[in-house]
Each structure stands twice: as structure tokens, then as C-alpha cells.
Amino acid sequence: MSPFNLFQRLSQAPTNPRAEPVARSFDVAELYEGPVQLHDPGDAAPLALDEKLRQAYFWIVNNAIISPHYDIEYHDGPSASFSVGDTRRTLTLPSAQSYSSYVLLPLLTFATRRKCLFVGGPGRGKTASAILMGVLAGYPVREVRRAMQHGHPQMTIADLLGNPLPADLVAAQDMGQIRIAWRNWLGMRVKIIDEYNRIPTRTQSALLTVMGDNYAEILNQVYECPESAWYLTANDDRGGGTYQVIEALRDRIDVVVQALAFNPRFLDEMLLRIEQNLRPEELVPREIIFSEAESEQMMAQIRAVDVPDDVRRRIEFFSSQFELMETAGAQFEYLTKDTVRLAGTDWAQATAADSGRDRMKDLGCQTRNGLSVRNLGTLLVYAKALAWFRGNQAVVLDDVRQVLPFVLNDKLQPDLDAPFFALPENAAYRSDRLSWLRWLLDASNAEYDRLDLDRNDPVGELSAQFARGLDGVTERETRARLTRIERLVEERVKGRKLYGHLYDDLLKLKYLHQRYTNYLHWLRAR
Amino acid sequence: MVSSVLAGALAARRSLFNQRVAEARHRWPGFDTAALSAFLTQTLDPVCVAVADVDAAATLAVAEAGFDVGLELVAQGLAGPAARLPWVDAAWQQLATPAAALIARAPLQVLGALSNAVVRMDSVPGVRVPDWIAAMQPLAARCTSGAQLRAAGALCAWQAGMVQLREAALAQSTQLPDDLVAEALGVAGGQVDAVRQQLQRERWWNPRTQAVEAQGQLLGGFTGLGGPFAAPPELRASALGFIARSGERHHLLLADAFGAVVLPASAAEFAAASAVPARAAVVDAQGVQIGARHVRFAAPDEGLQMMTGPAGIAIHSPYSHHVRVVPEVA
């Protein structure tokens, strides 16, 4: 084999070296490792899957995507930063390995088999990136292209899913006899829907079944799809498509990544590709192709990544900021934005009545909704995937901070009429949702630190005490715990102001109180 | 002008070579074709001529492999007249004739190994690449396989300053004929086993001088002047050598009779290492007195420290970015 392979060169492992204690052993083979490749890469021992995914990442940013933007920043010690322009925006030169969201998030979607939406203007490489993901799954480029579904206003359910066989339609005596010619793409591990916001509403509903429940149905015939990664593209995800995307379909999308502008400084590379008729998707090295078994292993390894308690608590604290709306209901459990939404109450009227709190300080006043269970599940999966991708066995807060904006991009809706957005220094957050979401997490963490919740969290202590179980807990002890809960509630409500995290703490205390009350009844009935 | 040997090979594979150059120009838009041409004339040509003398039938394969390897190295600035380092061309030119038979048998493996070895050695500060090439000249002619050449190369690399290869090279030398090892170590043929054992026991003993290097090795230096330490290092001893902490970085210092290297280490290795002061040493105006031996170390008396460990004694100072590692007994 020639040692020279155009576009086939992978970054040398380890792609994310770290100083870990290792048993030192020096080998003479080290002397003969260098620029000349002496062995067939196929002869090498198989790489760890996280290393393989990192190699795939680096191959894409170094060879396939011409102009990557390193917007997922990690720091290892001080990083140089500069204030730029009249607005004094910060340009940071990260001191640790940082990543391009446009490549990394789709790859994490591939690893976790989730759903990723590429948004951005026409001609920015959204479809090409989606095709690359299909090729990474081991499908030939031609097959990936043919399996890609192109949204258009006349797209029918049959176009999307398949057709009943004409002969069966004529001869069948009941529905069960009608066989369906299912579309091939339904069986693939990577599914691509190009310009999904051009699909008619009725066909979107059929797509929702496949995306949400992983099966397709025509004339009572069901096709069970394999677990797969989804890539959807849209030129404009905020209503600019031919059809309004149904909310349930939008909610099924796990992450949204934006194709950023091309930097003309890279025009020479584009020229080279034009002149040589090079297409990166046709040059993907076989070393970074993932088999089905490897995909399964990746998913298992990602699930096994630990989310430490301190990180989990900060996610809890963050997510508790947004659902509360004190004026929304009369009963304590219904003081939520969801109550307002379901009732169809005028939003402006509802927010105008909410006058008791500091609307600048309360993060919940910046959004029109709270976080769903699905959003939180997705956040945890992507945080684990990012930690795993970086070679770690546990999630750190920075992993959460980096994936959160992409997960909540079109899930947490800003209330642009909130006083926060009226401040001149926050004007940029009206359009830059990613930065706003990251700012929200930072502000939430600052508040968490101010309240010293890592060390002083009585609700957490009560929860942990309850989680140890009720076996052997005496009546006396149960009464003592109930008293402690009541005292804590009394103490917490003294301040009179109700904030999101306090609301969730009080609901948790009510839950614990109810569980102990039921247990006390049971003890007394024995 | 190239020899008729290489000219014939280039003509026979003209389209293949042209395609390779075209590919290289695509991958490296600034690819220097003139440098490749010079490399072919000055470096690959002597190799092909040497191979033709031992096995004319292998010339075409050698030319093809040499062309591919040369293309890669020239493109990376590692070979040719504009190369960042002269060693690849020097190794090919000086070792082609002695290693011609091996090159004829496995051109890519041998030329690749020689090239990688000199590039690797150049990347380790303090390693003497010209010494390695000179030491390999007589040995290459006596090696009968690529494996022997690589084992002999490792022995020579260790003696040229790649201290980390000491144990691995000595272990691999048992697979080499005694006369080859004797020549590599500069001793008489009958002494190989005894010499090998002594080298395994005493890292500061030099078989060529049959003596211990009493002054040891000076290593380190300030990063601003190309050294590894941003601040005067703090030292601890480990089983292999010494672990240094300088600023936020950690390093493993290895030294023996043939040289010294500074390799990356971790904070955990530093934490696990021991800090045992050398009690037998006395500081004086020009350095340190260890027993009857005076060791030079250019630093003020104040704060001068000596750390002892299995690898010897390390002398360092809060006013110096250098470290001197010496044998405990000389």
C-alpha cells in the first residue's frame, strides 16, 4: 500500500491526550514510529470507540468541513481573550481542546442515535454534513443519497413510507393481506430528511410516528424501524418553510445546530476541491466507519458515564427556575406556565399580574415555558455523550454547559418582552439564543453558589434520608421526620417571595411529607 | 543528472510517479517540486545505485518505494535541500551502501525505519543523530534482516542519547549475534554477556571507557532559551529517574552514561515520587563535593539541593533551570 493517501489520513491517537498515571515502559518500536507509515492501519489493534469517534471528528474538521468554527470552548488554565469592536464582544482563544458544534453535535447524535436538526441558509453544507453521518454508519454514498427524503409540498405519506402492492389491493379479502412495499430508508441506521419544513402537515404526522415511536403504519401494516440517528435540515426553522412544522414533531428534535457562515479565508481549499472534483463524503477512511455492533457498544458506554451528584443538583436547580408562574393558578401545584398555556390565557396579561418578584433577577421571568422531561433526558444523554467523547467516565459541569444551548435551542422559549431583554447590554441575546441559554446556566450556577447549596441543602438531605428506605423506621422517627419537614417548609416560606427553585423544593417537601404520612398510617394500622 | 539506474526506473513508472506528484500537489498546495527533484538526484539516486550493485532486479521496487517515502518526507519538510533537518538525506546517503542488501529485500520497511528513526531522534533534545548514523554504518552492512537492523539501531540510538531505550535495547540485543552487539557497544566479542549484565546493573558505566561517568549529565534549561523548564524545577526521585515540577508542568528526567532526556510526566507521578536529600554531599563554592569527587554545578550555594534515588543524585537550585544528575558512587 502506498504510504501516501490523499484525504485518507486520520489524526494520530490519542486525539485527546491527558496526563494520567501510567506504568512507564519504553519500547524500541517508538524509535521507528514517524512520518513514514510502515504498517497497514488495518493491522493495528482496534481503537477504543471514543478514540475512533474523535478520529472521525478530526477527520471531518480537518478534511471534510472547510471552515469549522470552534464554538464549544474548553479551557485548561488561563486562556487569552480580547474585547473586539464597539460592542466589546469577547474573542477567546481556548487553552484546551475545543470543538466545532456543527461537527460535534451531529457526531454525538450519531453516537446516541438521537435527532439533530441542521439550520442555516441555503448552500452552507447542511445536507452534505448529514450525508457524511450516513457514510460513517457504513452505507455507500449512493445509498445514503438515495435514502435521503427531500421535503416538498406535494410529498404524500406513500412517498414517505411506501405503497401497498397494487395486486394485493385488488385481490385482498382483508387488510391483513395487503402487503406494503416499504421505503428502504426506514430500515437504515441513519435517516436524513432534507428540508423537513417543506413537508405537508398530514405527511408530517406520519413522519412523527416514525420519529417518535420508531414504526411506520400503512393500512394496518406495521414496519418496525431500527434504532437510528436522525438528521433533518431546514433553511429557516422559525416559520420560513412551506408548512408550519407541527409542535410535536419539533419537540422530537433533540438538538439544533446552526451552519455558520463560510470564512472566505478558506477559499483556496474550496478551489482545490472544485478543480480536482473532490467530494469528502466519497473519501471517508474505512477506519472511521462504525459497524452496527460498534454503534450498540457506543450507546452502552455512553449510558454508563456517571453524572455526579453535584452536577445533577446544578441541573435540577437550573431546570427548576423556569416553570413557576405564581399568578397562573389558585392551587399550589398549578402555579405553572403550562397552566397559562393550556388555559389559553393572554400571556401579557398573565405576566403583568406577576408583580411580586424581582423580574430582573428571577431567571424564570425570561422564558415563556419550562423544561419538559424529554428536554432534561436529552440534556443528560448529550452531556454524557460529550463527556465520553472527551474520554471521561463522568460528566463535568462544563460538559453540561456546552451541550445545553443546543438541546434547549428551540425548546426554552424566551419572553422577549421581559425586562431582561430590554437592557441594552442584553440586546444580543434577543437573537443569539445559544449565548442566552449559556448565560442562563451561568446565572443559575452563580445563584446556586450564592446559596451554597453544595454544602447547605436540607431538602437534599431529607430526600437522601428518604431514599435510604423506610424499612425499620419507627413511628417516633417518622413523626420526627414529619416535624422536620413542616419546620423546613415554615422556614422556607418566611421570605414571602416565591422563586422557581423554592417552588420545586416545597413540592418535594410536600411529596416527602405525604409519603411519611402514608407510612405513619400504615404503621398505626398494623 | 541522475544515474541510468534511477532514470530507467523513473521512465518505467512515469505515469505512476506523475500521479503521485499530482496527488501531493493537491494535498499540499505549496508542495516544492524542485525540492523533490533535488531529493531524487542527491538522495534516492545513490540508494538505487547501491541496490543495483547487490540486486539489479530490486531496483524498480526500491525506486518506487523510495519515491513514495521521499514524496511524503519532502512534502513535510523533512527531506530535500529545503528540509528542516538534514538527517533523512544524510541517513539515506550514508547508510544506503551498507544497507543495500536489506533495502533491496524490503525497501519500504528499511528506508521507512531509517527515516523515522532519525526524525524521531531529532525530536528528542540532546540526542546526537550524527553519532547514530556514524555508528550504524559498520553495523548495517552486517545485519542480515530488517529486525536485526532495527535492534542494532535501538542499541545505537540509546548510546546516542535516547536514554529511555536503555532497557528495551539491551533486552533486544540478546537476539543479535554477539559480534554485532560487541561492535555496537565497542567491546571485544567474548565480553558481550558480562558487559550486558554490567550495563543492566550500572547505568553510569560506559563500556567504551570501562569507567563510570563521574560528572554525570547536565540537563534542562529555560523554556525561553529552548529548554524544558519555565521555572527552576523542584525534584523528586522515582524508580526510573527523577520527576521534576516546573510551574504547572511535570517532567521525567532520565540520565545515564550516554546522555540525558527530559520526558513529559504527570502530577500523580510527582506526588508518588520520593524526596530524599543526599546526605553524603557537601556544597562548596564551585559545586558539590560527593565523597572524594567534586561535581561542577554553576549556581549559588544558597538553596542548592541534592536529591538521591535509584538513578543517582540530582543537584538543583532555585536559581537555575538546569539539573545535574550524577552517579551516587564513582
Shape of chain A: globular
Helix share of residues of chain A? 40-55%
How does CATH name the architecture of the largest domain in chain A?
3-Layer(aba) Sandwich
Major β-sheet strand ordering of chain A:
4-7-10-3-11
Evaluate the radius of gyration of chain A. 27 Å
The percent of residues in helical segments of chain B reads 40-55%
Work out the helix count of chain B: 13
Shape of chain B: elongated
Average of the residue pLDDT scores of chain A? 89
Can you put this structure into words, describing what you see?
The complex is a heterodimer of chains A (526) and B (330). Chain A has 526 residues and is an alpha/beta fold. Chain A has 3 domains: 101-303, 3-Layer(aba) Sandwich (Rossmann fold), CATH 3.40.50; 309-450, Orthogonal Bundle (Helicase, Ruva Protein, domain 3), CATH 1.10.8; 458-525, no CATH class. Chain A is built from 20 helices and 11 strands. In chain A, the strands form 4 sheets. A 5-stranded parallel beta sheet of chain A has the order 4-7-10-3-11, with helices on one face. In chain A, strands 1-2 form a two-stranded antiparallel sheet. In chain A, strand 1 and strand 2 form a beta hairpin. The longest helix of chain A is centred in the C-terminal third of the chain and has 26 residues, at 500-525. Chain A starts with 48 loop residues before the first helix and ends with a helix. The relative contact order of chain A is 0.10. The model of chain A has no long low-confidence stretch (mean pLDDT 89). With 330 residues, chain B is of the alpha+beta class. Chain B has 2 domains: 4-206, no CATH class; 217-326, no CATH class. Helices cover 45% and strands 18% of the residues of chain B. Chain B contains 13 helices and 13 strands. In chain B, the strands form 4 sheets. In chain B, strands 3-13-12-11 form a 4-stranded antiparallel beta sheet, with no helix packed on it. Chain B has a 4-stranded antiparallel beta sheet with strand order 4-5-6-7. The longest helix of chain B has 22 residues, at 33-54. Chain B is elongated and about 70 Å long. Chain B starts with a helix and ends with a strand. The mean pLDDT of chain B is 91.
